[in-house]
Write a sequence for this structure.
């Protein structure tokens, strides 16, 4: 069983999964490592680690600035892999998922899957790699048992969804709104119906992300899904130089969803 | 040359690719919008009444066909091949960009979209979009890098006069690529009522095809004009390449006519070897940005590098995927011209022909300035004079050490 499967298997005990997103190297590599370890200690079940990119097209202003802060520290892909290795030294269970843009992953060429495995990475989310373009990338990752986590959006229709599900693994990331990270989430019922629809078509766990910024939204979203992703709000603490507050916030979310 | 025969040249393919280049590298949310656009575009290609409407607008609103002009004094001065200019600078709004927006705004209306957005570098595409939006009564938002807003103040004011909202983009390098990022962010948020009018042969499929097709009126006219007025097709066609829309527009109808040499000229900035330039086809690597796989200026970690050019319209780290393909098969030759060479040609054409070219176009002129003297007088070179230079007055004055 993979680390991701193990996390979601606890579902039987009705535990909802808390996924956190932070950007590698924001505000610097040392703090990044500390933040990630604190997140684990405060209840994060899966770490999504953002790969900073010069052109983060799907991000709202808060996460854009996180990418910029990390790039100012000259974070390279090998630093991110090292960061993952360091997390693994202390913790061999928490799944690590790298989230970023296609051009960053392309920079590792045919060594990507191997390097990711060696660094203890379990899955990859590529924001600008839709299902249609992903076949060879998916197959390469599969060889090393790395999951390509698919993003599903409100505009994904059923026909397309079925095709995507045929080559999905790990979990599914439902993007709750049409927009960028950190945007305002308005229509809960629509999200609920969509997630139910997805769940009726697959056994894969479905987590909901985008627009989750407090206990209330987290609780609502978790009530019909397998877990939630929170990113902008955590990064907001980093931007405001309130890193110590992240732990309590994470704990409160974890409590709210379970 | 790697190609044997181009008689079957038919790109993009079903996957939206030009060889390995192109594709649809966008977030999942945008896929439906791209599929809709593709479907509607496939329909209108065969729809005679739609095509008639485009042609009518190109004639009556844009002022087409644009003349093919013999640059007699400049030809004499250079003392070699005969130089002709395809006068896209005479179009309404002063550049080739309107050929595309006239078509795309009709597509937007066909899809029932009430709002159009666009990115702009030099401001020409922004003005061309604001112009058609005004004509059709659509809401219009233009994204423009903070740095470009500063160097293209005249165009910014033109857009505002036309009723568009100009959004200043202060992220990243504050130029064209960042404006495109921001336009993508707006589109993904407002995808239901908004059409994104991409201004170059760049971005995800089907944009490179749509923008090429609408601009290829330039090459189609040139075929007719050169046959009629010169008795043959040009020996060489030269165009500047940023994203590459004016070049694709004039090249495309000639791709299968392999006797005509096609040359694209990129922005060499301070020189390709200096690293300060915007010439991904001369000094870039294959990657993915803005929805397409193409040549990009990037570092070893895949971070997109800052570009540099005196001309805002060429200041872009990528290039349309069809150019990447045409480069690799060797059908089009890609060169570069430096800021200095472009500025010299700007002044030369202005003084010898009474035509003030855009700084973008001046890069194509600079290449011709170099090769024309070496060619025989029987050879014919056509330059796509893609835009006029009024918008560049402040930049040129500054380069010449003057204040206006």
């Amino acid at each position: 069983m993979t680390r991701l499967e193990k996390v979601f298997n606890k579902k039987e005990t009705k535990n909802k999964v808390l996924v956190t997103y932070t950007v590698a190297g924001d505000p610097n590599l040392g703090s990044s490592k500390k933040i990630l370890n604190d997140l684990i200690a405060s209840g994060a079940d899966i770490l999504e680690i953002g790969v900073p990119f010069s052109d983060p097209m799907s991000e709202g202003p808060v996460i854009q600035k996180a990418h910029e802060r990390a790039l100012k520290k000259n974070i390279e892909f090998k630093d991110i892999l090292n960061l993952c290795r360091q997390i693994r030294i202390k913790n061999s269970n928490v799944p690590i998922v790298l989230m970023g843009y296609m051009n960053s992953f392309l920079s590792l060429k045919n060594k990507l899957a191997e390097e990711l495995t060696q660094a203890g990475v379990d899955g990859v989310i590529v924001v600008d790699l839709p299902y249609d373009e992903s076949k060879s990338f998916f197959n390469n990752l599969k060889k090393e048992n790395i999951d390509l986590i698919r993003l599903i959006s409100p505009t994904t229709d059923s026909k397309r969804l079925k095709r995507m599900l045929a080559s999905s693994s790990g979990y599914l990331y439902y993007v709750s709104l049409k927009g960028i990270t950190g945007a305002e989430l308005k229509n809960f019922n629509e999200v609920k119906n969509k997630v139910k629809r997805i769940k009726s078509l697959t056994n894969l766990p479905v987590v909901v992300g985008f627009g989750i910024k407090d206990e209330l939204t987290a609780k609502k979203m978790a009530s019909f899904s397998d877990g939630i992703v929170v990113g902008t709000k955590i990064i907001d603490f980093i931007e405001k130089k309130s890193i110590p507050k992240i732990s309590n916030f994470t704990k409160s979310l974890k409590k709210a969803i379970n | 040359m790697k190609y044997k025969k181009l008689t079957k040249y038919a790109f993009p393919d079903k996957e939206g690719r030009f060889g390995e280049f192109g594709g649809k590298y966008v977030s999942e949310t945008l896929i439906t919008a791209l599929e809709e656009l593709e479907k509607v575009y496939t329909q209108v290609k065969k729809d005679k009444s739609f095509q008639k409407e485009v042609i009518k607008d190109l004639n009556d609103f844009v002022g087409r066909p644009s003349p093919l002009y013999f640059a007699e004094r400049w030809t004499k001065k250079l003392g070699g091949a005969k130089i002709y200019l395809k006068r896209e600078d005479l179009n309404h709004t002063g550049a080739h960009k309107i050929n595309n927006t006239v078509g795309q705004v009709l597509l937007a209306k066909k899809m029932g979209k009430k709002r159009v957005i666009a990115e702009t570098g030099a401001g020409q595409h922004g003005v061309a979009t604001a112009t058609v939006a005004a004509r059709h009564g659509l809401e219009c938002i233009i994204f423009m890098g903070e740095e470009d807003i500063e160097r293209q103040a005249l165009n910014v004011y033109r857009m505002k006069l036309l009723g568009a909202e100009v959004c200043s983009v202060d992220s990243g390098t504050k130029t064209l690529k960042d404006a495109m990022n921001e336009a993508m962010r707006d589109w993904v948020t407002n995808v239901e009522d908004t059409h994104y009018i991409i201004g170059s042969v760049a971005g995800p499929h089907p944009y490179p095809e749509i923008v090429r097709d609408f601009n290829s009126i330039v090459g189609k006219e040139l075929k007719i004009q050169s046959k009629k007025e010169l008795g043959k097709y040009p020996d060489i066609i030269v165009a500047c390449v940023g994203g590459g829309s004016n070049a694709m527009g004039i090249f495309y109808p000639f791709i299968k006519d392999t006797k005509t040499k096609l040359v694209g000229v990129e922005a060499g900035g301070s020189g390709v070897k200096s690293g300060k330039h915007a010439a991904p086809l001369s000094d870039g690597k294959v990657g993915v940005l803005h929805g397409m796989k193409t040549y990009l200026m990037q570092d070893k970690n895949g971070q997109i590098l800052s570009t540099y050019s005196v001309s805002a319209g060429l200041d872009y780290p990528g290039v349309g995927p069809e150019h990447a393909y045409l480069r690799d098969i060797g059908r089009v030759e890609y060169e570069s011209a430096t800021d200095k060479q472009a500025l010299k040609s700007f002044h030369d054409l202005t003084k010898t022909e009474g035509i003030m070219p855009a700084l973008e176009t001046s890069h194509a002129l600079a290449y011709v300035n170099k090769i024309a003297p070496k060619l025989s007088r029987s050879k014919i070179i056509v330059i796509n004079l893609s835009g006029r230079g009024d918008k560049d007055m402040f930049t040129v004055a500054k380069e010449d050490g003057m204040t206006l």
Remarks:
- Chain A has twelve helices and nine strands.
